[in-house]
Amino acid sequence: MSVTVQDVANYVLENVGPMTSVKLQKLCFYAQVWTLVATGQVLFPEPIKGWVHGPVIPALRYRMRGGVSANLTAQQIAVLGPVLKKYGGLTARQLSNLTHREQPWIDSRRGLAPTEAGNREITPSAIREFYSRQQF
Questions:
Q1: Beta strands in 1-136 (DSSP E)
Q2: pTM given for the model
Q3: Cβ–Cβ contacts within 10 Å for residue 59, how many?
Q4: What is the spatial distance between Cα 75 and Cα 116, in angstroms, rounded to a whole number?
Q5: Alpha carbon distance 39, 34 (integer Å)
């Protein structure tokens, strides 16, 4: 059974509790990051875009609530636990600031003014390349 970003978002909400959409976006982004680094595979297929306030998964932006995380495997949950432990206590602003210092988002915004809308994808390969070199 394939996992969607909505499944991941539901897991995050079930385990962290209510939060802003910005925080949920960033936690789902880092779930994708850690999964790509740990397994070499994407956690969810929906594209991530480099928007003004950091990485955004447009499919999640328009469907914030509903459902349960039953589609996640034990291996996927094993990766998500540390993500939530490391980032779950941060505010939406702290998470946005963190992503703004990381190369995949910076590259997605290249040539755009700070407040200019952008829609470039932050690709799985860009995520894997940058974050594989980071200490988690």
A1: 49-51, 54-56
A2: 0.89
A3: 16
A4: 38
A5: 8
In terms of Cα–Cα distance, which of 99, 128, 104, 98 is closest to 35? 128
Q: Residues 22, 96: contact at Cβ < 8 Å?
A: yes
CA–CA distance from 17 to each of 2, 9, 11 (Å)?
24, 11, 10
Q: Which spans in 67-135 are helix H?
A: 74-87, 92-100, 103-108, 124-131
11 residue type, one letter: Y
Query: Which residues, in sequence order, are bridge partners of residue 49?
Result: 56, 121
Measured at the alpha carbon of residue 68, what is the angle toward residues 67 and 74, in degrees to the nearest 5?
150
Q: What is the pLDDT of residues 38-54, one digit of tens each?
A: 999 999 999 999 999 99
